[in-house]
């Protein structure tokens, strides 16, 4: 791998200069927060254990802070960017700051939720600072569509990081926790302070590591069938599974029969079950009940929420929860690098 140029990474002054040239004025109202600290992006790359032979896919590269750090360590980087202005500028930034590595960089100008194939060799790692409002759907969709991705490290809102890495019995354990665990072993990998962003957001960020399972969950049920049970269980998470799964099974007695056959108490709640136990329930779905649909991996209609790097104002206000998608909306998204 070529030696990178000195001072290739972006610092605070570089970020502000690039933003000014592009007419990008990041504000909390518009939902844009750019990483301005080179040590932080190098830490992300180091924590992701990026190797010299890795092909890394990055979703939402923004101005390129993390992109440049990834190019220092990986063989190739493929960045998926939805924003027209940012997508137009990033290849030039890479060529100017890291000319010796520019031929190892590819930009895909698209909504990440619509991407079904990537140019070049199959990706081996996903490393990204994901937009808050689409973090879970994008993560799950990428893991589903690109099984060659062995290792993932994403920076997300701290509360979403906690939910992704939660274990059964934890009060924040839910749909994102179970679905992420279907694909990978998931754990919290650190915290990121607010002062490394410009402007500083109102919430903390967290790193989540996902290492793909070497052996898939042993079940005769499909992913869609298992995820249908998960969605039903947490749609009414305070109810017992007998009641929560009544619609899925066709009736409460049918749900009870499926639960008993799976070796699970009908009085249990979804928050107590492992992904393997959800799979066991799916295997015992009563005959004649409505089959699971072919919903996307993140339980979102494809393209229903633009993903990539964070157009201004893309984050809804308020503090609403979308349990099925796993989004927690406290802070504007659009966190470009």
Characterise this structure:
The structure is a single chain. With 337 residues, the protein is an alpha/beta fold. It is built from twelve helices and eleven strands. The protein has helices at 12-22, 38-47, 65-73, 84-97, 135-145, 158-165, 175-183, 223-235, 241-244, 246-249, 252-261, 275-283, and strands spanning 34-35, 55-59, 76-81, 105-109, 125-129, 151-157, 184-192, 197-198, 205-212, 321-322, 327-328. The chain has a seven-stranded mixed sheet with strand order 4-3-2-5-6-9-7, sandwiched between helices. Helix 7 (175-183) runs antiparallel to helix 8 (223-235). The longest helix has 14 residues, at 84-97.
Helical content stands at 25-40%
**Total E-strand runs:** 11
Beta strand %:
15-25%
Biggest sheet strand order reads 4-3-2-5-6-9-7
Give the overall average pLDDT. 86
Global geometry: elongated
Helix run count: 12
Structural class comes to alpha/beta
Gyration radius, in Å: 21 Å
Order of helices and strands: HEHEHEHEEHEHHEEEHHHHHEE
C-alpha termini separation: 24 Å
- List the uncertain runs: 299-305, 309-335
Largest sheet: 7 strands, mixed
């Amino acid at each position: 791998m070529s030696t990178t140029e000195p001072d290739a990474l972006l610092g605070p002054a570089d970020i502000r200069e690039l933003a000014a040239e592009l007419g990008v004025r990041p504000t909390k109202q518009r939902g844009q927060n750019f990483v301005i600290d080179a040590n932080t992006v190098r830490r992300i790359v180091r924590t992701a254990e990026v190797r010299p032979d890795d092909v890394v896919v990055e979703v939402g590269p923004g101005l390129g802070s993390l992109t440049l750090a990834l190019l220092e360590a990986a063989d190739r980087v493929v960045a998926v960017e939805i924003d027209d202005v940012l997508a137009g500028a990033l290849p030039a930034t890479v060529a100017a700051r890291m000319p010796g590595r520019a031929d190892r960089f590819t930009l895909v100008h698209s909504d990440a939720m619509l991407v079904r194939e990537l140019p070049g060799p199959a990706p081996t790692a996903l490393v990204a600072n994901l937009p808050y409002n689409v973090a879970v759907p994008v993560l799950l969709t990428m893991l589903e569509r690109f099984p060659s991705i062995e290792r993932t490290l994403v920076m997300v809102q701290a509360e979403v990081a906690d939910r992704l890495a939660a274990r059964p019995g934890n009060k924040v354990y839910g749909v994102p926790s179970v679905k992420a665990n279907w694909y990978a072993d998931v754990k919290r990998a650190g915290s990121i302070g607010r002062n490394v962003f410009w402007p500083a957001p109102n919430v903390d960020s967290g790193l989540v590591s996902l290492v793909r399972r070497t052996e898939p969950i042993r079940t005769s049920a499909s992913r869609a069938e298992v995820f249908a049970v998960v969605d039903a269980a947490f749609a009414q998470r305070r109810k017992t599974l007998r009641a929560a799964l009544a619609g899925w099974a066709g009736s409460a007695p049918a749900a009870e029969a499926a639960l008993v056959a799976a070796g699970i108490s009908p009085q249990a709640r979804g928050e107590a079950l492992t992904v393997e136990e959800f799979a066991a329930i799916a295997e015992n779905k009563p005959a004649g009940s409505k089959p699971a649909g072919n919903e996307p991996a993140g339980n979102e209609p494809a393209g229903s929420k633009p993903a990539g790097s964070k157009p201004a104002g893309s984050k809804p206000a308020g503090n609403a929860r979308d349990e099925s998608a796993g989004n927690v909306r406290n802070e504007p998204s659009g966190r470009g690098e």
